[in-house]
């Protein structure tokens, strides 16, 4: 029996190999763009309607025009997101950096929730107890559980709690600040630089865009959502600690998040609000920065932005009416 000669497989054409490589690179880039929150090169937008049309993602440039607010506000920078669709509803100088004040603490609590056991007991250090500004009156040698410090950090904007948590994680505030900046880079917060864990330093600077990134990361944690939606809590040596976020007391739709003020930063507010619209639970995330007239006017600005944002979402959900 004569064996037939084997046929050689034809070598793949060079263009086919190049096409495969290109497809792999494009796929990796797209996955990264869609998975990173508020990516600098793209925003993942989810199209949605009351008819339950399947979700469709499209990649949009960050500088896509957004509507302007139909009213004046006292802030010089801000953003507003529909968190359900990841749609950017409004932005104003969103990438302009400036001092962050106590909104800095959003990174402090982000790392604490990742690294510290909630029931771990910490002994207050002299350095933490001596921290100036907003505090929960901690004294050297007193004991607090991590969870208690997290409530103090967010509700009372306690600088002493921020330093205590920072030292517990980093061994020193300097080492912890280094970790804060490393995490900011990982999250794509390219306009942010931290100089302390509490925001007292005017050298802790960031943008409205970046603050929305870290706020969204925090909001993925159920305990964080519970803390920032709490109006009052009792802590050691502090029978009543009241949340400084006045919005929580103005509208039941508001669910957080954080205030911040220093002379350099002005008045700053990060907020969330949730409402049912056409059978859909809609959550807005907003950031407004650098007001000069106090929190009552800023709270009023936030309320107007929230109602405007919900109206924009409702308009997008309502199908166009065609003449019969």
TrEMBL record:
Q: Which Pfam families match?
A: Peptidase_S11
Which InterPro entries does the entry link to?
A: Beta-lactam/transpept-like (IPR012338), Peptidase_S11 (IPR018044), Peptidase_S11_N (IPR001967)
Query: Does Signal show up as a keyword for this record?
Result: yes
Sorted keywords for this record are: Cell shape, Cell wall biogenesis/degradation, Hydrolase, Peptidoglycan synthesis, Signal
- Keyword Hydrolase included in the entry's annotation: yes
Start and end residues of each Peptidase S11 D-alanyl-D-alanine carboxypeptidase A N-terminal domain: 72-282
Q: List the PANTHER family.
A: D-ALANYL-D-ALANINE CARBOXYPEPTIDASE, D-ALANYL-D-ALANINE CARBOXYPEPTIDASE DACB
Q: Which family does it belong to?
A: Belongs to the peptidase S11 family.
Q: What is this protein called?
A: Peptidase S11
Please name the source species.
Sulfobacillus thermotolerans
Ranked from the top, the taxonomy reads: Bacteria, Bacillati, Bacillota, Clostridia, Eubacteriales
């Amino acid at each position: 029996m004569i064996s037939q000669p084997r046929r050689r497989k034809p070598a793949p054409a060079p263009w086919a190999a190049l096409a495969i490589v290109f497809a792999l690179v494009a796929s990796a880039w797209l996955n990264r763009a869609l998975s990173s929150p508020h990516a600098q090169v793209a925003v993942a937008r989810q199209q949605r309607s009351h008819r339950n049309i399947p979700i469709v993602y499209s990649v949009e440039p960050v500088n896509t025009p957004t509507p302007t607010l139909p009213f004046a506000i006292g802030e010089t920078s801000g953003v507003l997101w529909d968190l359900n669709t990841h749609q950017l509803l409004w932005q104003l100088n969103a990438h302009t950096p400036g001092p962050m004040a106590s909104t800095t603490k959003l990174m402090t609590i982000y790392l604490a929730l990742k690294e510290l056991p909630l029931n771990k007991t910490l002994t207050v250090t002299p350095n933490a107890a001596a921290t100036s500004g907003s505090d929960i009156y901690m004294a050297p040698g007193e004991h607090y559980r991590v969870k208690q410090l997290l409530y103090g950090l967010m509700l009372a904007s306690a600088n002493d709690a921020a330093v205590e948590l920072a030292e517990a994680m980093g061994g020193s505030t300097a080492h912890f600040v280094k970790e804060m900046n490393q995490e900011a880079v990982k999250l794509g917060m390219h306009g942010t630089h931290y100089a302390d864990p509490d925001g007292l330093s005017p050298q802790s600077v960031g943008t409205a865009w970046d603050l929305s990134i870290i706020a969204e990361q925090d909001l993925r944690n159920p305990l964080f959502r519970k803390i920032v939606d709490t109006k009052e809590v009792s802590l050691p040596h502090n029978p009543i600690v009241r949340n400084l976020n006045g919005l929580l007391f103005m509208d039941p739709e508001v669910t957080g998040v954080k205030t911040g003020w220093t002379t350099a930063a002005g008045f700053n507010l990060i907020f969330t609000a949730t409402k049912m619209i056409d059978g859909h639970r809609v959550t807005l995330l907003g950031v407004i920065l650098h007001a000069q007239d106090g929190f009552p006017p800023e709270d009023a600005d936030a309320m107007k932005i929230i109602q405007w944002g919900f109206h924009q979402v409702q308009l997008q959900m309502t199908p166009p009416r065609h003449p019969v």
